[in-house]
Amino acid sequence: MVSDKFDPGKNALDKNPLASDGLNPDPEKLLQEDPINIEVLKRLTGQSILSVDQFDKELVLEICKFAALLESTEIAKSHPLDGKIIVTAFFEASTRTRLSFESAVLRLDGKIISISDGKSTGQAKGESLLDIGEMFNAYGDCVVMRHTETSAIEEIMPNLRVPLINAGNGSGEHPTQSLADWFAILKWKPQLKGVLKPEEKIHLGILGTPGSMRAVNSFLRMSLLFKDDIKQISIISEMADPLGEELNVKAEASGIKIHITNDINEVVEDLDVIYMNSIAFLGDSYKSLDSRFKLDENTKLKEDAVVLHPLARLDELDPILDDTHHNLYFTQAHGAVFIRQALFISVLNRFNKLPKDKIPTA
Q1: Which end of the chain has fewer CB within 10 Å, C or N?
Q2: Which pLDDT tens digit goes with each residue over 120-167?
C-alpha cells in the first residue's frame, strides 16, 4: 500500500515544493520592521565573492534579508537577469551547488553557459587557468567556479575582468554555502539580527575539520561574525588541532569559547545548532564513522536543537530525523537558490529591475 506521502494520485501542483519535512521557518520574519538596506548590498556591485573574510555581520544580514524577500515574493516576472550570461565552470563534480546556481539564474531570466566536467575543457590538455580566465571575459558577465585545487582562485584571477563567485576551491572555502547556512539559522532565530541576551546565546556544534574542509571552514568563519550571539563553539573532530594556525588566530580574536572534542555525545545535549558534515574523505570514498560522529534516533538532542548539513550525507545523519523539528537541513538546501539570486542581483547591480514596491531602488 502506498502512503499518503508518496501517493501518485495527489496533484503535485497543489503542493508547496519548499514545504518539505522538518522545519520550514517563515522567511518574512527576517523582514519584519527591518527594511532592506540597498546601500549595504551595493557594496557587492562588481565584486568577486571569494572568501567569507569579505563579509561583516551587517552585509551577511542584508544578503539574508534580500534572500528572504526573494523567497517570499514573485520576482521572476521582473526578469532581473535578462540579458546577462553566467558561466558556471565546475572543474569538480557537483550536483546541489551547480544546480542551485543555475536554477537561481534561470528563475531570474538569465542565461547559462555551463562546464559540468573539467575533463571536457582545455585544462585537461594542459591549458592554464590564467588563459581560461582571459577567455571567460568574452563569454559571460559573471563566472561561478568550483575547482579541485585550492590555488585555483589565485591562478584564474589575474586575467579575469568579470566577477567570480567561488563555489568551492579544493580544501579552501565555500562562501556561498556559509551564506545559505546562516540564512537558514536566521530564519530559525531572527533575533540573531541583534544581540541576544546572555541566557539566549547559542551553543554551536561543528562536526568536521575546519582547517581542511571548505564547507565547515567557511561556516566557522561566518559564525565568528556573530560572536556576540554565541556562547560557545564545540568542534567535533578526529583531529587534535582541527582548526589550523589561521583559524585558531581568528577564533581566539573573536573571544568565543572554543571547545574541541572527538565525541559528539559529550556535548550534544547542550547544543542549540549542530552543523553536520560527511567527513574523513579518503581517496575516492568517505570513511565510515562510529557513533561519536553521528546523529540518529539514540542521540540525546536538546528539545529545540536544529541540525544543519550541506549535503550530500552518508550515515552520519540518520534519515529518521527528517520528519522531526530538528531538521533544518532541507530548508538550508532550498534557501541556497535565493541566497545565490541575491548575490547575482547585487554583484551585477540589477536592483533597478526589481518591483519598486518591494525594494527601494534609489
Answers
A1: N
A2: 555 655 679 999 999 999 999 999 999 999 999 999 999 999 999 999
| Count of Cβ atoms closer than 10 Å to residue 257 Cβ | 12
Sign for the CA dihedral angle at 358, 60, 21, 199 comes to: negative
Alpha helices (H) along the chain = 38-41, 57-72, 96-107, 129-139, 152-156, 175-188, 214-224, 244-254, 329-347
pLDDT in tens, 62-98: 999 999 999 998 888 899 999 999 999 999 888 889 9
Does 288 have pLDDT greater than 70?
no
For the chain, what is the total number of helices (H) and then of strands (E)? 9, 11
Q: Is the peptide bond before 312 cis (omega within 30 degrees of 0)?
A: yes
Report residue 260: phi and psi, to 5°: -115, 130
Q: How would residue 282 be classed by pLDDT, with cut points 50, 70 and 90? A: very low
Q: Which parts of the chain are beta strand (E)?
A: 85-90, 111-115, 142-147, 164-169, 202-207, 230-236, 257-261, 273-275, 281-282, 285-286, 306-308
CB 269 within 8 A of CB 302: yes
| Burial (Cβ within 10 Å: 0-12, 13-18, ≥19) of residue 118 | middle
Phi-psi region for residue 244, left (φ > 0), alpha (ψ -120 to 50) or beta?
Answer: left
Chain center to CA of 2: 35
Q: What was the pLDDT predicted at 325?
A: 94
| Residue with cell string 527601494 | 360
Cβ neighbours for 259, distance < 8 A, ≥ 6 positions apart: 232, 233, 234, 235, 267
Alpha helices (runs of H) in 195-243, residue ranges in sequence order: 214-224
| pTM of the complete model | 0.91
Tell me how far apart the alpha carbons of residues 210 and 198 are, in angstroms, rounded to a whole number.
26
pLDDT at 118 over 80: no
Instruction: Look at residues 208, 136, 148 and name the one whose alpha carbon lies nearest to residue 178.
Output: 208
